[in-house]
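Teaching note: in complex prediction, the entire set of molecules is handled at once rather than each chain in isolation. The prompt given to students was simply: 'Predict the structure of this complex.' The entities are:
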Amino acid sequence: MLRLEDVSASYRGLRALQGVSLEVGKGEIVAVVGANGAGKSTLLKAISGQVATEGAIDFEGQDLRRIRPHQIARLGVNLVPEGRRLFPRLSVEDNLRLGAYAKRGDPDRFKPLDLVFSLFPRLQERLAQRAETLSGGEQQMLAIGRALMTQPRLLMLDEPSQGIMPRLVDDILAAIVRIRGLGVTILLVEQRLAEALEIADRAYVLQTGRVVMSGAARDIAGNADVRRAYLGI
Amino acid sequence: MDNLITRRRRGELWIGAVILVVLILLPLPIADAYTRNLIIISILFAGLAQAWNILGGYCGQISLGHSLYFGIGAYVSTLLFVRLGVPPLVGMFAGGLIGGLIALLVGWPCFRLSGHYYAIATVVVAEIGYLLFLNWDFVGGAMGVYIPFKGDSWVALQFRTQKLPYHYLVLAFATATWIAAWVIEGSRWGFSWRAVKDDVIAARSLGVRVFPSKMAAAAISGFFTGMGGAIYAQYVGYIDPDSTMNGQLAILIALPAVLGGVGTLWGPFLGAAVLTPLSELSRSYLGGSGRGVDLMLYGLVIVVVALARPAGLVSLFGIRRRPKGVADGSPA
Amino acid sequence: MTAMVFQVAIGGLLMGLIYALVAAGLSLIFGLMDIVNFAHGELMMLAMFAAFVIWQYAGLDPLMMLPIVAILLFGLGVLIYRGLIARALSVNFNRGMVQIFVTFGLAIFIRGAAQFVFGGEFKSINTGWLAGRTAEIAGVYLPLPQVAASFVCLAAFAGLLLISRTEFGRALEATREDRDAVALIGIDRDHIFALGWGLGAATVGVAGVMLAGFYYVAPNVGANFALIAYVTVALGGFGSLLGALVAGVLIGEVEAITAAVLEPSLKQVGVFGIYMIVLMVRPRGLFGKL
Ligand SMILES: Nc1ncnc2c1ncn2[C@@H]1O[C@H](COP(=O)(O)OP(=O)(O)OP(=O)(O)O)[C@@H](O)[C@H]1O
Ligand SMILES: [Mg+2]
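The expected output is the structure of the full assembly:
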């Protein structure tokens, strides 16, 4: 479904990605793990068109590098970004509805609301509240909910567990598994190695902008080298 | 590193000296009054733009109200001369001092504002000054003030037929502003100001006292602008609020610096060398008959230069701006 | 005496509503993308000339031509965004000054163009349903073109409020809060910005048409209104619609009172004085968001 070949990206001379090749198959959950500053977020930004890249990024036959960011989102490649990037002064409901803004004219565009509320019932109780007044965990739910409203086919999540207590993390990971169950492909960036590898099918390990290991999630989870050398656990 | 910087700064002095010599010799082979006038006005605006640059460029405070200091300088020296007989050679400095003082008075409330709020406040303050002078009979109101001619004299800065003395007068003025900018660039102040311009919060954390920095920049900038106004008044021999305090004038002062290259030593001069003749020539050749064509041309040039050369015309010459802030290598 | 007080107050209100609407267009664009449009007064001037030309050649009353001119100005706003502002946004150096001076250059260009086409003389629209007519209520005279203009201004404010409640209005608000994040949900910020400029220009266009019904039309008419609009917006708080309305009326009143108490030629000194005082107390204006 998504294939990256030899993708590089840099910020003013600093190479954040160097020749990354990666593949995500339809219906998979693929995890990308690595230490701080390894380039995980940059990888997701590259796919969603927010940083300039070299190489090839192919999504179902289309070269995403030639497409503007909002059009990438309209293709069904959607990112739940680091730091969530909600619209803080707008209500929870407005944030969710805006997820469907690009589909104006489609009478069914608000349908995913049901899914969002069944995944995160708390959001339904807080519809009128401003996004900035939500707790960190609720904000993460809202960010995922907003992305779901766009009816993604490939959902990319950048550290959904950031700043969230362990029990809620399990809830969110469970939600991700459910979302995959509905046919959405998942590309997941996570710091929490064990949890991420538990739900993922395959995983890539990133170190200073390069893929240093890839394979079945179970193998990577069991590999002591990975844990020690690349993740410092 | 230090060596490199001093060498570059010395190089700038040499370039400055060469240009100065060229400008000293420039009017000698030129006989016609029109061209000489054009050069004088251009050099005057080069100095004014450099004065603006000290506040707007080095310190990053986009003032759109410099017409006020210009007008104040013009009125102070003129009224001192007409009413009290103080020679304009002295009045020029008085005008500068009062201009600087007014800049401090304006800065005191306005520097608490940031961004667009600051820019608009400066427009408004200048407009208040303009309206007050327009309605203030003591300073001649809308009628303005004629400066009586009392014989050719360097003390009175009056020369009935000659243009050459004025040429050297504005040249001295522009040179003074350039030297001020040059000194500031290499000084502790210049460092603080650039820090204020780049990031106020970071500047504070570096121990830069932000408000006093802005005030100092405003005072120096206002001083030179007022001085320029005084010189202009003697050159033209007549002042009124429309010719010395009009809001449009504030733009004419800022524009050469912005389009030439803000916060650079040469940008304001280069901008004035291009823009002032362009505006004067297009006004005299297109203004009368074409009705508005001169404005269209001028506006177009502003838009095109701003978009095509956001770093200013100096960037055409490969003069690189110094790296920002702390990485600058200036004394801290 | 009371009639005179009312006369002054009504005069201030009628003018203040026009100021408010001119400022609303400016504020809308500023709030959306943090750009002050220094050609705003020139957009108003163009709308006034459009009204004048339509009146002269088609004999339409200002009230009837409102939609036409609003659409024209909307298109012009979109064009300005696409042609100039989008480029100014994409420079990566000195962006703040580039934005200021690009709109300045545009203002000078438009003024020159208007002078070239229409000449510098004052023109006015002096026939129409309401032209020159006044009503009298208890000794207070109400110039009808101005009364109509005030109602149109209020209606325009209501319209802007309605738009802000629509889905498009939400998208505007979202773009203003995080212009990069909207792309993630498939919103094209350039599209939103362009429509924002269109809307801002159409707003000042409506004000211009109504103003043309009782004010002179000339290439330099915009400059003065623009200055008052900047003051209104800074006073009300950049980006605040309610702020523009309140500050506009306040400024109209202060102007009318200063003119009555002091001297007509000093009326703006009162306005600017109030502005300076308010900014000292509230640097972000009356309703400005921090
Ligand atoms: N906007 C930027 N400008 C300059 N450098 C950046 C920028 N964003 C990221 N970088 C640099 O690129 C490198 C990779 O950053 P990235 O955010 O992709 O790391 P990450 O793997 O997501 O780290 P973390 O786990 O801490 O989120 C880092 O060295 C970072 O400093
Ligand atoms: Mg990251």
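Point out the following to students. Chain A touches chain C at residues 48-50, 68-71, 73-74, 78-79, 81, 85-90, 94, 97-99, 101-104, 146-147, 149-150 (CB under 8 Å). The pocket of magnesium ion (ligand 2) is lined by residues A 40-41, 82, 158 (CB under 6 Å).
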